[in-house]
Write a structure and sequence with these properties.
173 residues; alpha+beta; OB fold (Dihydrolipoamide Acetyltransferase, E2P); 2 domains; 3-stranded antiparallel sheet; globular
Length: 173
């Protein structure tokens, strides 16, 4: 008899705990700026160019960002970030954010609400920390088109490689 009562009590407790976890699946635990930085593959200050939401399966939001500032990793001027599930980080077109990102694929990242992300206008403390301790990177241009006065340089198309510009036939400037 005691075992039956104990088993029922344990079952009720388990159901209540499971329901509580399902109702509040994303609970953020505050971490230090150093911890957010160490966990991220890249950190960016970026402007939201577009937002699209998938309704198939899990709800995922894909965001196209224009990179204004970067830390930890050189990035192209525009990247895509996917966020979703119960810990979705909310984006709106035109907003600016400080984001801590994890790689998904090349130039495609993910982020979540609990990763230290902030609207840019509320991120001064984080930006000060990044200026002091972060590894500054840059948003790269994949190619540069120069006007006609460089016409003799192999079709006007130059490719950026580090601090040098490479003409499409392999010569460096």
């Amino acid at each position: 008899m005691k075992n039956a009562v104990f088993s029922k009590s344990l079952l009720v407790l388990l159901v209540v705990l499971t329901a509580t976890i399902a109702a509040f699946p994303c609970r953020c635990i505050q971490a230090s700026l150093k911890t957010y930085y160490q966990r991220a593959d890249a950190v960016v200050a970026a402007k939201v160019l577009s937002v699209s939401t998938s309704t198939e399966g899990d709800e995922l939001t894909t965001v196209k960002l224009e990179i204004m500032d970067a830390w930890k990793k050189d990035l192209p001027k525009e990247i895509e970030v996917v966020t979703g599930t119960s810990c979705i980080y909310i984006f709106q077109t035109g907003e600016e954010h400080l984001l801590y990102l994890k790689n998904r694929t090349s130039n495609n990242f993910t982020t979540m609400r609990c990763w230290g992300n902030l609207p840019l206008d509320k991120s001064q403390k984080s930006l000060n920390w990044l200026k002091k301790y972060g590894k500054k990177s840059r948003a790269e241009l994949s190619s540069v088109y120069l006007p006609d006065f460089f016409g003799e340089l192999s079709g006007n198309l130059l490719f950026e490689t580090g601090d040098w510009f490479q003409i499409d036939d392999g010569d460096f400037l």
